[in-house]
Amino acid sequence: MNDITNHIKKATDSLRLSETERRDMSHVVREYMAHKPLPAGRHGLTHGAYSSISLRWFAFSWIHRPLAAALALVFIFGGGVSFAAEGALPGDALYAVKTKVNESVKVALATDTEARANVQMELAERRIEEAATLASENRLDAETQTALAAAFETHASNATREVATIDEDDSSAAAEITSRFETRLAAHEEVLALVSADVNATNTLASAIRGAGLAVADIRARAEERMSVSAPAAMSLAMETAPASATMKAAAPSAPETPSTQMDVADDSAAKYDPRAAERMRNSAEAQLKVAQKKLKSSKASTEVKAQAEAELVLADDHLEEGRVFLKDKASAQAYHAFQQSLVISEKLNVMLKSETSLKKAGARTPDSRASARAKAQEARDEARDDAEEARTEAKIQATATPIQIEVEADAGTSVVHEVVPVIPPPFKIFHFEDEEDEDSDSLINIEL
Amino acid sequence: MTDPRKRPQQEEACLEAFTAYSDPLFRHAFFRLSNRDRALELTQETFLKAWDYVYGGGEVQQFKSFLYRILNNLIIDEYHKSKQSSLDELLESDTGDLEAKMSEGSVRETEEGLDEQGLLETIRVRIPELPDLYREAVTMRYIDGFTPKEIAGMIGVTENVVSVRLHRGVIKLKALCLNNDL
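Structure tokens for the assembled complex are given below, as produced in the milestone run.
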């Protein structure tokens, strides 16, 4: 009997972890320990007297201040972990915490339809951002991509469903939300293409994005149609085709046909366009421009990139100003589209700035493709600038036909911008300056008159 | 009160425990699971769980038995996951006739006739075929070197039960080794 039991020990002793296995495991254990470091003071628990004191203190505080203690625990553990999880990527230990805990909380906290739509849009975008980050580090495999694309589609279709519900009550809100989402999607698609070493590598996700983008564009077209119930058919048709294709196709600062097409349509019909829609678009455009300006300020991009971005912001500001002039002139449709263009530029820039790190990483890897992409972007921008220039001239021409103070104002607005563009001034200041002038200009002009 | 030098003590203890017990734990898991990959994973999981406990303010007096207890629970969870039949059912497999055979003394001779290398190899292969509860006891006793009393404490049964399982487990193992030859 003793025999075999002695042999058991001998037989099994040779079984050990291989060197690599031990190293890997040791690494994981150390990482894990480093990830959850003991708070200062906790070490005392191993030592007799001290431990009993601190334990008693714990018990005491727990009994007497249960709420505070519970809150503290939530902050120390829950807050820390979910905060740490926010940056997790697929494959990371905390990714499940991010998607299952943090994001479910976000969804649950969104109470009205609009908030729900916004949350779903944000989550959909997050999936693309994660893919972009992985791709920029060359870590995006097919499986992860499929999973991310599926998650993206779920969120995107949730978002479009919510937006469709909004559209039933408030078309202007739906139009604003979809304009933003569409632009951001297009920008994300562009980022994704930029960061992946091989364009075909991100095909699955890219087509998912395109699909969602088209669905959103569809809703937007309907919302815009609804806003102009009293407008003639030609106009709604123009609106249905022009902006939808433009934003999805050329990814952002584009839609050159939009204002000009609108311009050709009879002026009085434009006035029947729901002014609330233009107002809403204006608020959104202003808000996003501000966000973009702020982001640019804190951006760590090279001065060259920053200068480009600033130039785009000036363009967005121009559009905004243009829209204000139209709005004054009661040309709601034109105003709406001018604001929309401004919004499109700002939002695209927002996405680009947000993906800065991924872009930089990818740029370090493939300087060539990055350079060509930049050249392309520059080209698109130049084009957009020309178009904007054109639109502005047209706006001026149109403004001439309207009451005198509008002409003066439009002139003032454009001339200031013209002077300023080559110098690249701080956009914030111009923005405020013009904003304030807006209120006073009427009285000023009246005095002069 | 807070001596910064003492702070790494728990970390140190954990890392020392890793160095000292990663092989034995892995060995234990391997013979319990007969699956190298899962054994690796569970061994790692054991250390992570141990750290969770320390992180949560727990105090570990004896790392060895503490780690084995964690690992044992993990393995039992694993059984529950993978096996449809209950542990009781597995225990049912009666060893009565084997015991009878053993007492006759016929087996002993055969056993002695085996050359040692062959026997060692056979034991390695056959341990995973033991019914789970016997394997648990036999692994802990003869591979990990715990006393029956320690085992009893770890798996939460009386020392007596452990002894019975050991006894039966060893007989069963012998029988398995011998069948191998036949």
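The interface with chain B takes residues 1, 3-5, 7-12, 15-17, 21-22, 25-26, 28-30, 32-33, 36, 38, 40-47, 50-51 of chain A (CB under 8 Å). Residues 75-87+96-245 of chain A form one domain. Further analysis is deferred to the final report.
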